[in-house]
UniProtKB/TrEMBL annotation, chains A, B:
<dbReference type="GO" id="GO:0016301">
    <property type="term" value="F:kinase activity"/>
</dbReference>
<keyword id="KW-0418">Kinase</keyword>
<dbReference type="InterPro" id="IPR036388">
    <property type="entry name" value="WH-like_DNA-bd_sf"/>
</dbReference>
<protein>
    <submittedName>
        <fullName>NBD/HSP70 family sugar kinase</fullName>
    </submittedName>
</protein>
<dbReference type="Pfam" id="PF00480">
    <property type="entry name" value="ROK"/>
</dbReference>
<dbReference type="InterPro" id="IPR036390">
    <property type="entry name" value="WH_DNA-bd_sf"/>
</dbReference>
<comment type="similarity">
    <text>Belongs to the ROK (NagC/XylR) family.</text>
</comment>
<feature type="region of interest" description="Disordered">
    <location>
        <begin position="153"/>
        <end position="179"/>
    </location>
</feature>
<dbReference type="InterPro" id="IPR043129">
    <property type="entry name" value="ATPase_NBD"/>
</dbReference>
<dbReference type="InterPro" id="IPR000600">
    <property type="entry name" value="ROK"/>
</dbReference>
<keyword id="KW-0808">Transferase</keyword>
<dbReference type="InterPro" id="IPR049874">
    <property type="entry name" value="ROK_cs"/>
</dbReference>
<feature type="compositionally biased region" description="Acidic residues">
    <location>
        <begin position="160"/>
        <end position="174"/>
    </location>
</feature>
């Protein structure tokens, strides 16, 4: 599938979106009803409909019940429930997660697959394509794909401040925001919106998950990396250079271990999956992954419980500091390590309540995430659909490719 | 001055604001010109004008140059430059700061006076009234006062979450948000908008001060208390229960000194004026107040420099943590302790740059506040005028008395 540019192609896409929007709103309609509602000429409408049917976006439904004595019943057209409108992809450190919504904005399905941390981007995109192909029992059609919302680890490219004293650290301005962007665009033939994957998970939880409806949310993800996202005053927060929610790089021990970020003693050096498993093994425990650690905890293993007590206390202290600064009403904890349950969450909560300002102590609610590993991919879909009020003021930075964002917005009904 | 309620009084105030708005926009106008612009009946207009002139809001200017041969030149009317439209008052821990703007939204002046920490509210309001009376060489008239924006120490009352497990800590819902509110309303006969005084200082600095024009700002005030405020994504941030910006109560030493907030080892126990002076005296220094400490620093006193190096490092560490969480582009440091200059600010900056995520290191700018002790009072005025885009989405909580806020908004031209 390709997305030709130019005014005529844009006009055509506008007409397509008009027709798709009417079908989304009204359900199955006959050609005659569509003609009355869309106000396009009969020739134009039939041409648009032929394209949508050929592309798989629209299918013929059964004939409507027509009034008696008026000839044969008119065929009606409807959205193809197997036509994807938006795909969300979370390129996590060691896994790819995908999800898709159809033209009716219903979630078609989600899928995940782990991989090695050093898998090249080309192959991660292969994996994403395969997972997308498996959705909806392999019946998902991409003929009406509006865009892809993709999350990647770490800060997504953002313009340099003027007079940056160390510009050599950063990519050239003409380069794509991230190497996966051109790969995805080529593979799926659709615009690609990029953002930090953990921020997208925060968005997903704040729209559909543990914090649905809350206006001030702190989301913390404890996974191979430690990060998070913020909803402040009813809006997803990005930060001046897209660098917010980096709770994993808050220093918890100035004399601690070196961190991948270049800092020292960051929360991530204590509370990532690797850090916790390493510490558990150093304490004589045996676990190669989080499920094994969870088993040890359920068996009442003392070393595991003591370790998580300490890690939870450190996490709670960081959350208390951030709470005092920002004042959320809800804290959501997600990521694989949250699967350790009360063994981790209870010490987190104790330290949080002990260190947050006493006046805030009973005003913040701590919750487990509910969307599981699909949260980031679902957040990517939310970014594409751009319907959540949480995004109504979300800035469209250069890496969000404003022309594409405009394009997508215009194509939303 | 009183503000009668009821639909007729509201209608009249609406007419008054219409006339005042026209004079603000166009400058001096004759009665005839006003009549054409405001579309009110001649009787109504003359009645409104008589009230505004009697109240001191409007004064007669010299006659306009009239076209020749058209009889005597018409008298023009203009805004009284000595008529205050809004007053801002910062009730700090040990001082009252006031500022006022006239009907043309020009700052008429500001004034401050220190007092003992235990001065009763009644007398603080006396002091505020005296200071307001001194503005504009004592010529300020309050006949057109729209409202008072007042800042107070600590969180301003906010609704309880449901099922609060310790409701006895908090004021009754029917009580005013703060004891100063009814006192001010009675004394000045105008609606009172209340907010945290440090958040108002942040607002002032972000509108007119060191961070004017920036959309992501962290303001830290080092005074008798330590607190701050946030502008996130171009909006003043309040937090779920009005409890944001409490940087002073972030724990810096879990084994540290008890804090007034009920916590232990908060930043405020290390970086408040009292904490710094106490530590200086404990190190053999002699200073009863910040100016004396500044003198010691200028004289190169080793104990003072070593102390501020340590305090600055602690402050910088807290700022780094908050930066990683929120991603501001500008940090503004205000409050009396900032007067110690580079002796404090340089170690703050070193610790900040050492502990913030390396990728953010050159993206955040550290600045001294520029509005001095008037910042909070100016922020109170900004709250009343409600013209800054930073306030366009500011929530009107119950303590902001929504009916009053609506009233004030309606009265803005």
């Amino acid at each position: 599938m390709s997305h030709p540019r130019g005014p005529l192609a844009q006009l055509r896409r506008g007409h397509e979106e008009l027709v798709l929007g009417l079908l989304r709103k009204h359900g199955p309609l006959s050609r005659g009803e569509l003609g009355k509602l869309c106000q396009l000429s009969r020739t134009t409408l039939y041409d648009i409909l032929a394209g949508l049917v050929a592309g798989g976006a629209v299918v013929a439904a059964g004939p409507q019940d027509a009034p008696r004595g008026r000839g044969r019943p008119a065929e009606t057209l409807t959205l193809n429930p197997e036509a994807g409108q938006a795909i969300g992809i979370d390129f996590a450190r060691r896994a790819v997660h995908v999800a898709a919504v159809n033209l009716a904005h219903e979630i078609v399905g989600s899928a995940s697959e782990p991989h090695d941390a050093d898998l090249p981007w080309e192959q991660r995109v292969d994996l994403a394509e395969r997972l997308v192909g498996s959705l909806n029992d392999g019946g998902l059609r991409l003929g009406a794909l509006s865009a892809i919302g993709a999350g990647v680890v770490g800060p997504v490219g953002w313009p340099e401040p003027e007079d940056d004293p160390e510009p050599e650290d950063d990519p050239e301005p003409d380069e794509p925001a991230h190497p996966v962007q051109p790969l995805l665009r080529e593979r799926f033939g659709a615009p690609v919106l990029l953002d930090n994957n953990t921020r997208l998970a925060a968005l997903g939880e704040a729209i559909w998950g543990a914090a649905a409806g809350d206006r001030d949310v702190l989301y913390l993800r404890l996974s191979h990396g430690v990060g998070g996202g913020l909803v402040v005053g009813g809006a997803l927060h990005r930060g001046a250079y897209g660098l917010s929610g980096e709770f994993g790089h808050i220093t918890v021990d100035p004399d601690g271990a070196p961190c991948d970020c270049g800092g020292t003693g960051c929360l991530e050096t204590v509370a990532s999956i690797r850090a916790v498993l390493d510490a558990y093994r150093a304490a004589g425990g045996r676990a190669d992954d989080v499920p094994e650690l969870v088993k040890a905890i359920r068996a009442g293993d003392g070393a595991a419980l003591t370790l998580l007590e300490g890690v939870g206390g450190t996490i709670g202290g960081v959350l208390a500091a951030v709470c005092n600064a920002i004042g959320p009403s809800v804290i959501v904890i997600g990521g694989e390590l949250a699967e350790t349950g009360p063994a981790l969450i209870e010490p987190v909560e104790r330290a949080l309540r002990a260190q947050v300002m006493p006046v805030s102590r009973h005003r913040v609610s701590l919750r487990r995430a509910t969307l599981g590993e699909a949260a980031g991919a679902l957040g990517g879909i939310a970014l594409v659909l751009h319907e959540s009020p949480l995004l109504s003021r979300y800035p469209a930075g250069p890496d969000l490719a404003p022309d594409l964002l405009e394009d997508i917005k215009r194509r939303q009904p």
